[in-house]
Amino acid sequence: MLRTCLLLCAITFPVAASDLVRTMEAVEKGALADSKAASTAEKTKIDAQLAEFHKRFNQVLDAMRAFTDDYNQSKGLAWPARKAEKLDSAMRSLQKTQLWSQYVPDAKAPREAK
After folding, report:
1. Sign of the CA dihedral with 56 first, then 58, 60, and 63 last
2. Any idea where the domains of the chain sit in the sequence?
3. 1-28 burial, b for 16+ CB within 10 Å, e for fewer?
4. What is the biggest distance separating any 2 CA atoms in the chain, rounded to whole angstroms?
5. Residues 6+ apart with CB under 8 A from 94
6. CA distances (Å), 18 to each of 9, 22, 114, in order?
7. Could you tell me the pTM of the whole model?
8. What number of other Cβ atoms are within 10 A of residue 63's Cβ?
9. How many angstroms separate the CA atoms of 41 and 59, rounded?
């Protein structure tokens, strides 16, 4: 917006060539500052998405570890239903992340809980 305003002012009002150069330099500086701000905001957004994905992935690993410990402790004779439900819930939570839907090509919406 600033760039457009400065460009319009430069075209509308007759100025010396050196002033036009300074005006265009100001426009370029403004555009560069806007670009840096946008890339910083994008990086912050990506970092937040990655942190959320890591948190939910670690929840899946913890739930899987708890399930396998209980299952192996019973030597396969008992099904740890509560641990299985927690694992299912953690997996559905992971599938809801932005990164999951962005990088898994056939990612469908996670099934609804019963």
Report:
1. negative
2. 2-103
3. eeeeebeeebeeeeeeeeeeeebeeebe
4. 89
5. 53, 56, 57, 59, 60, 100
6. 15, 6, 72
7. 0.61
8. 20
9. 27
Which string of DSSP letters, residue by residue, matches 35-82? HHHHHHHHHHHHHHHHHHHHHHHHHHHHHHHHHHHHHHHTTTSS--HH
pLDDT tens for the chain, residues 1 to 114: 545 544 444 444 444 444 655 656 666 676 667 677 778 888 888 889 999 999 999 999 999 999 999 999 999 899 999 999 999 999 999 999 988 888 777 655 555 555
Residue 47 in contact with residue 61, Cβ under 8 Å? Answer: no
For residue 69, what are the CA distances in angstroms to 41, 55, 75?
42, 21, 10
| Tokens standing for residue 53 | 């994905």
CA distances to 43, 59, 81, 92, 107 from 103, in Å:
18, 20, 31, 16, 8
Two tokens at 10?
A: 């430069």
